[in-house]
Amino acid sequence: MSELNLLPKTFSPAEAEQKWYAYWLANDFFAAKPNTEKIPYTVVIPPPNVTGVLHMGHMLNNTIQDVLIRRKRMQGFECCWVPGTDHASIATEAKVVALLKEKGIEKKSLTREAFLEHAWDWKEKYGGIILEQLKKLGCSADWARTRFTMEPKLTDAVIKVFVDLYNKGHIYRGIRMVNWDPAGRTALSDEEVLHKEAQSKLYYINYPLTDGSGHITIATTRPETIMADSAVAVNPNDTRYTHLVGKKCTIPLLGREIPIIADSYVSFDFGTGCLKVTPAHDINDYELGVRHRLPVIDILADDGTLNEKAVLYVGQDRFAVRKQIVKDLAAAGFLEKEEDTKSNLGYSERTGAVIEPKLSLQWFLKMEDLSKPALEAVMSDEIQLHPARFKNLYRVWMENVRDWCISRQLWWGQQIPAFYLPNGAFVVAETAEKALVLAQAENPDYTLADLKQDDDVLDTWFSSWLWPISVFDGFENPENEDIKYFYPTDDLVTAPEILFFWVARMIIAGYEYRGERPFKNVYLTGIVRDKQGRKMSKSLGNSPDPLDLIAKYGADGVRTGMLFSSPAGNDLPFDEKLCEQGRNFSNKIWNAFRLIQGWQVDDALPAANHSAVRWFEARLNASLTEIEEHFEKFRISDALLTMYKLIWDDFCAWYLEMVKPAFGQSADSFTYNATRDFFEKLMLIAHPYMPFITEEIWQNLRQRKDGDSICVAARPVAEGTQNEAMLKQAELAFEAVAQIRNLRNGMGMSPKNALSLYIKTADAAAWADWTETMSKLANLESISFAELPGANTRSFALKADTFFIPVAAPAGADAEKELAEIEKELEYTRGFLDSVNKKLANEKFTANAKPEVLERERAKLADAESKIKTLESALANLKA
Q1: Per residue in 151-182, pLDDT tens?
Q2: What is the DSSP string of 731-743?
Q3: Measured CA angle at 585 (ends 652, 618), to 5 deg
Q4: Helix (H, G, I), strand (E, B) or coil at 338
Q5: Is the full-model pTM beyond 0.85?
Q6: Of 611, 553, 551, the residue nearest 582 (C-alpha)
Q7: Fewer Cβ in 10 A, N or C end of the chain?
C-alpha cells in the first residue's frame, strides 16, 4: 500500500532537528564509558572561548569532528567526544572590564575577589552559549563530560604542573623583553602576536652634537620613544661617522646627553645609517644595550601612555604623542624630513592593539629540552599531521623554539602559585599552607599573613596544553578508569594557526606527563574565507551568522555545504550557494524517498531489473571502498563528494530511472526490496554528514523499535568482489543514453518518439544486459547489432563501438547548423588528440609518469581517434 500521502512533499529541517536531537539526548546515544568489549575512539574538542559565539570556523571544525565521531560510532567503537570551553583570560577579562565600565565601575576600584565574582557571574550567564549553538549543528558530543579550563579539578591540575615543572628546574622568573599588549595590559607569547605590514612614516631627526660642531641625523618610525634613548649607534666600518664615535649628542627637546657608539649590528642602508638606541623598547636595541652597558629607560606605562621617566608628554597616549612630538620637533628645527614607508607591526591576537616590546619581570618555561620528544614524535610519524606538508613547518618551529612566557598580568585565570616572603624571596607550592611549610624552613616565625601570592595568572594556553589529560582527570588520578581507557586520544581537529599555540604544547605535555602521545592524528582545517579571499570575521562584516544559515538551509544543508570544498589544510572559499547546494541535496534525497515509498508493489510480478540491481550493488560496493579509503587518508571532503555522486548521480539519476515502474504500474517485490535496501544503506553512509534527514528517513523506511537510531546502526561495508567489467560496461551504456538524448535535443525531436539503434561492436554479448535499460532510458523501440547502411543516419562512437540511429530530419531542422556544430566538435577533438600525442611523445613525461597515468593518457588517445572517425562519418552522412 502506498505511504506517499503520509509523507510531506518537502523535508522540514527545523522540525526534524528539534525532534531527533532531543531523541538522541534522551536515549544517551552520545554517552561514552569504558567498555572492554569495544575499541575506544576519542576526540577532544578544541575548547572554544567562553566569550565566543558560533562562527564559520567553529562550524567547519566541529562538523568535521562530528563526521568522524558518527562514522566511528556506527562502526562499533566506543566513541567519546569530550566538549568544553576555555576561560580565555585576556578576552574574558576585557569583556568583564567593559561591562563594569558600562555600570560606572572601574576594575581598579575593586578587590581581586570582588572582580572575580563579577567574572564568574558573566561566565555563568554567557559562557555556555557556544556549546548550546553546537547542538543546533547536530554535534554528538558527550555533553555530560563537558569541562571548563578553570573548573576546580582542572585548575588543580594546572597548579600541580606548574609546581612540578618549577621543581624540575624548567620554570624560572626573570626580566626579559616581552610582547606587551597595552589594551589587555598583559604580556603575550610570540604566538599570540599577529604581524601585519602597515603604512607608516620614517622621520629624520637631528641630534645636536654637544661640542657644538653640528648634528647627527637618525631615522626612526617611532619618534615618541626618543625620550628613552640611551645612545646613538653607527657601524664601525661606516667612514661617514667614524670621526663621531666617542663623542656625545643631545636628545632633541629633552636636552639629555647620550653617547655615540659603534656596533656592527647597525645597517649602512637603513635611513641615514645612524640608529637611535632605545633598550627598553626594542629587543635588538636591548641586546645592543647589554653589549655596551647602556642604561635602560622604560618610558611607557602598562596602558600605553608615557610615564614620568619620559619627562615630556607624561600621561598622554603613545600615538597621540607621536603626532604631537613630530609637530614640536619641526617647530624647534630638529625635524629634517619625513618619508612614507612600510613597517611590519605586531598586533595582539586578542585585543587588536599594536604590541609594544617591553622589559618586564615575568615567569618563563624553558622549552628546549621539553620539546625534544614532541619533535621526534611528529618527525617519526608516531603522530601524523594531515596534510603532511605542515610537518616541515612544525619541525622548523620546534627546532627554534623559544622559552614560553607563561605569566599574564590579569586576575581572571589560574593565579601563579608563587608566594613572596618579607625578605623578598619566594617559594612555589600548590597551596598557601604548603608554601608556609617551605617558608618556615627558612624562618620558623613566618605565618600565613607573611606570605603574598603572585598577582599574575598563567597564560590560558598553560591550562589548555593539558586538555587531553585533564579532561579525564589524569592529574588528579593518573590511573583512573577513564584515562586508562580513553587516552591517548585518536584524532584532533584544529586550525593550523594554533599548531604551536596548542598542538605542539599538548604533545610536549603528553610525553612529559603520560610518557606517550596525546593523539594519533592531527587534522588541520583551512580558514573560511569570503569570495574576495578575506578571512571571515564579524569586524569585517563578511561573515554570515551560522544560526541564520541553519535556519535557512537546515543543519544538514550547512554541514554538507561547508564540506563540499574544504580539503584538509586548504582554505575554504565560502559561498552561501554551497549551503543552497547542500539543501538541494537534502531535497533530492527526500524526493527519492517519497518516490520509493509511493510505489505500489505486486508480489505476483516476476523479478525484473536484475542487471540494474547487480550494477548498483557493484557501484555501491565500489563507492564504499573509495569512501573508506578517503576517510583513512583524512580526505573528508573527497569522501563526501564520492557519497554525493553515489546518491545524486548513480542512485537518483540512473538507478531509479532504470527501475521505477511506469505510471500506473506496480513494482515487483524483488526490485522494490532491493531498492529499499540500497536506499537504507545510502542513508547509513550519508548519516555522519547529514544526521537529521537520514534519521528521519531511516525511522520511516521500516518499522523500528523505540530506542532504535541510525546513529548507532551498523555502517555498511563493501561486500563481495567488485565487477569492474560490469561497471565499465554500464558507464558506456549511460554514455550512449546521454548521446542519444543529446542527439534528440540537437535535432529538435520529441523524447516521446521511439528510435531504433544499431550498434557496430565486436562484442554484442557485452551489451546484452543493457539493452532493456537503454531502451527504457532512451526510448528505443529496437536495438540491433548490425551496421545500418545508407544515408539519413546519425552516429557516435564509444571506445571501439559505433552507434547508428536512422533519423528523418524534422520539418524546419537546420542542417547547416548541425553541420557546423559537428565540424566545430571535430576541430576540437583533433586539437585534443594533438595535445595527447605531444604529451606521450615527451620522453621526460613518459619516463616520470606513473603507470596508471600513462594508461589514462593512452586511453584518451584511443577514444579521441575513435571519436574523430565517428564525427567524420557523421559529416559524410550529412553531406550525402
Answers
A1: 999 999 999 999 999 999 999 999 888 889 99
A2: HHHHHHHHHHHHH
A3: 40
A4: strand
A5: no
A6: 553
A7: N
Q: For residue range 528-582, what is the model confidence (pLDDT) as tens digits?
A: 887 777 777 766 677 788 899 999 999 999 999 999 877 766 777 888 899 999 9
Whole-Å CA distances, 711 to 24, 360, 695: 8, 54, 8
Cβ–Cβ under 8 Å, residues 719 and 621: yes
**Buried b vs exposed e over 192-213: b needs ≥16 C-beta within 10 Å?**
beeeeeeebebbbbbbbbeeee
DSSP-assigned beta bridge partners for residue 196: 345
Show the cell assigned to 651: 542512485
> What are the tens digits of pLDDT across the range 597-644?
999 999 999 998 889 999 999 999 999 999 999 999 999 999 999 999
Beta strands in 616-676 (DSSP E): 667-668
pLDDT for 517 equals 97
The span from the CA of 633 to the CA of 636, in Å, is: 8
Q: Residue 765 carries which DSSP code?
A: G
Edge-to-edge strand ranges of the sheet holding 491-494 = 384-386, 521-524, 491-494
Q: Is the pLDDT of residue 880 over 70?
A: no
Q: Grid coordinates standing for 477?
A: 588520578
C-alpha 518/C-alpha 491 separation (Å) is 9
* Orientation of helix 504-513 relative to helix 390-399, angle to 10°: 70
Cβ–Cβ under 8 Å, residues 353 and 317: no
What kind and span of H or E run contains 597? helix 576-597
Distance CA 541, CA 536 (A): 8
Show the cell assigned to 223. Answer: 619618534
780-808 pLDDT tens trace:
999 998 766 556 778 888 888 888 888 76
Which residue stretches of 355-441 are H helix? 372-379, 390-399, 432-440
Whether the upstream peptide bond of residue 387 has omega within 30° of 0, thus cis, is yes
Contact 208, 250 (CB under 8 A): yes
The set of cell numbers assigned to 452 is: 603574598
- CA dist., res. 572 & res. 508, Å (int): 30
Amino acid at 528: V
**Share in percent of the chain as helix, strand, coil (round to 5):** 45, 20, 35
Q: Cβ(277)–Cβ(288) under 8 Å?
A: yes
Q: Average pLDDT, stretch 436-448?
A: 94
Q: Does 812 have pLDDT greater than 50?
A: no
The string of DSSP letters for 521-555 reads: EEEE---EE-TTSPBP-TTTT----HHHHHHHHHH
pLDDT reading at 269 higher than 90: no
Q: Are 348 and 355 in contact (CB under 8 A)?
A: yes
Q: Which amino acid is at 397?
A: W
For 328, residues 6+ apart whose C-beta sits below 8 A from its C-beta are 253
Residue environment code for 459-484, b if the CB has 16+ CB neighbours within 10 A, otherwise e: bbbbbbbbbbbbbbbbbeeeeeebbe
Strands 418-420 and 404-405: unpaired
Under a CB-based contact definition with an 8 Å cutoff, are residues 530 and 524 in contact? Answer: no
